[in-house]
């Protein structure tokens, strides 16, 4: 991992945070600042955190850290979802092993008090692991003041929330067909039921329903029946219905046809029966009707669906015949019947189908006194009402039911079907649809308010708001809020035996008052409150609490209120006033509404049907507002193979092992700089985390390390400690300093704007680009300045008391200080801007930078941690858009030049002759010209040509059509547009390149439709030119290696050293000197490494070859040295000490020289 062990350093920083109680210190420093409210959605603690939790935790850490640094007080409390199925499943599994029973049977044996005690015991099993992992990933949150949904204070606030809804008439009791988990013995909400679908194979069976004799038919349908019987000519006439749930057939009470469809009479030649069905259903009975015409015959008679209404048929089973013979076993009509599914007639089992229930209720087959047949116990097993299948689970009974019906001659066809079927997200078992007596919160009537409140919130990504969540709210159904469970917050409803008198309790005090209970109520779970009764006010005896508990989503949706025990724990709460807590300006609401709605929430995409939904519904019902202003939605983290992460499949690395290998900063940055923060899925790759280390963290650390080395060098050379001076930039005219400082201000301006919009996915790439600009551009281009011209190899001037080099040295030191201050300010700013994202490395570097701050800045802030100081503010005086533009253009040219070299595999060490930059914008060329020195040096080219004359270099344009895009947009005109493209002039193409659009054959084309290619016309003159293009800029690099260029490059390097030596010696241009040089042995030999004769000989050979190169260079490039060494250049046979003005030992292009300026 290079010079730093990131995980070990993070552990050190973590220990420092713990030692200084850093999180609480941050809270203390900001406690008097305006509040920023963050709501943390509560997870279950029944397992260890996975990558989805770590992703959400990272987002929930970044944003509060940012706003805390922006001057807000951000309280962060962890929350636990402690009730519900996950906990009960653990206990049920143990009870199954212990007693051989689970669920209600187990509770009956051990009692609900013992059952709940066991639940409480395991509910926070993994809390310590969560605390350790969340802390290690760098998230600051208060675990000591956590909220738990099982706390009596939280539960009481849930009662209060429900009580307000009850008072508003938003709660009702009814039976509704709901998704039902037979494994958990409870109904689920529709959102829960839609969480998990699996491909399963189920039986598909078509059964017959013979028409009753005409004399047993109602008078109004006898004419239709007679027509069918006449057409059948004495054969049996039957309705047929297709189903994939044979287990519902014992509860059949009706059939349903579409009123507008035409139904056929089909003679099945094998059974000699007549079947009434849709033509589209023939494929169900005969697979390929065209090939099976010898197996059936369609009769001439066709009956419209409306003619079938009311026709009676013979029941499949007699279990419920006596109860429904006068109301059911007839054909009903509804438009929900589909042509493309089944045979066009649907069997109705009202207790097990939502449409069945509504239609049967509408048609009077069932009503409040005549409930639908529902012969199942809580576990989904048939009761004694269906004696033939008593005790059998519904899914297991499918085969036996089909076998029974085959014996009765009622099975027409049977097969298998593979389809996606909903499963219980907790037990992973198939769900059924079942009518369940339940308590509901009205939602459908509030859909307009929900959609209106949605518009007042901001979502990232916005497509979740306008798409998935909007659609979910628009189609919202009343919320089944009750669960037939044991470990949960009890519904605060006390009812009479006939359910006519209902009392909703909103607080513990109200329960004691209404019941007369004088004991202390310390807990609100079922074992504590179920035995408390309330005397009837209507002479109905004693009111008892209903058995149900809240859907745990109701509890998590109540957390904005319940987590702070609203309204009971707030000033001015009045227990005697039923409306206390509902006013925004009086009572408890006066304080509460200073922090409500919350500023920010964040969870995964799956919460659009979960926590986001329940928060929104309850907030709208209570105060007609969503309880949050901004919502950040992350996508799902998948395994690298694209599958769901699975412990059993072992298809993902343990998160803690990844942190141990690469550090939490790397994991955080990998997750945040990925599609997952745009609500898209992420295929987790450990290699991606590793690349963050090498591509981001290590360069950032190396930038600091380089600064630290130069600060130490400054101390060594000048005996001066580097102290940051923010005002020194007023006298700094260096263009690269001005650029990097201006870029830093632009970065801060951008980050603030995007973070205020919660767009993390745009912020991180920009921050990472700044790291790259600092390391690969600023430091790379200013290395010598930062080193004091040459660092440890700086010229050691020997003035012999005869030169006044002080001012030159002062200028050089000032330039070095400018560069060091610039680099310090950039890194100091960058680590503060990165602190919310990579809190460990940012703090690590900050703590090392802090000693260099001036005393005035140290005194004004707690400099023990970057997280105690403010987010960097924009320094308006450092903005320079012109310099930013110029350097950006220079970077583009250099990158294209590097690309040309890479394509030709020519090293940067090889000098090349010419780089041509072609652009039609003169300003672009002028900008590049101002920085041409950097371009020539970086690309190691001699000449830079800036021109608009494309024709001179044989530049040719061609326009290519995106055929697919043109075809989709312009249909038949696409061919005409494509044919016109070769006729476009160069001006047309330039217009398109600059504006992004072009009109061809009357149609406006954009970048989606066209691609412009530029290339050189092949010729002898262009043979050595390598082309690179980006946008409107085109560069040509002469890739031929001219031998003389290497010598010229060597001469430039030596001359540069000579000129610096003159400057060190304090010489002015008119001072005449002679240059003496000698070639030194290679470094290894000079350091005494060559002790054997062979090494010594090799060293001498190398020295002689270098000497030859230098002699040739001075001979051929003599003109270059006429000013700097006006009295000539000579090779020294032996070192001369007399007359030496200044000397330097220099390494130039891997050659070691001793250069001396001699007095003439």
TrEMBL record:
Region feature Disordered, mapped onto this chain: 790-811
Keywords: Aminoacyl-tRNA synthetase, ATP-binding, Ligase, Nucleotide-binding, Protein biosynthesis
Signal peptide interval: none
Catalytic reaction annotation: tRNA(Ile) + L-isoleucine + ATP = L-isoleucyl-tRNA(Ile) + AMP + diphosphate
Domain named Aminoacyl-tRNA synthetase class Ia: residues: 13-679
Single biological process term from Gene Ontology: isoleucyl-tRNA aminoacylation
Residue stretches in coiled coil: none
Keyword set includes Hydrolase: no
Enzyme Commission identifier(s): 6.1.1.5
Keyword ATP-binding set for record: yes
Residues annotated as domain Methionyl/Valyl/Leucyl/Isoleucyl-tRNA synthetase anticodon-binding: 737-914
NCBIfam families, alphabetized: ileS (TIGR00392)
Protein name as catalogued: Isoleucine--tRNA ligase, cytoplasmic
Record organism: Hortaea werneckii EXF-2000
Source species taxonomy: Eukaryota, Fungi, Dikarya, Ascomycota, Pezizomycotina
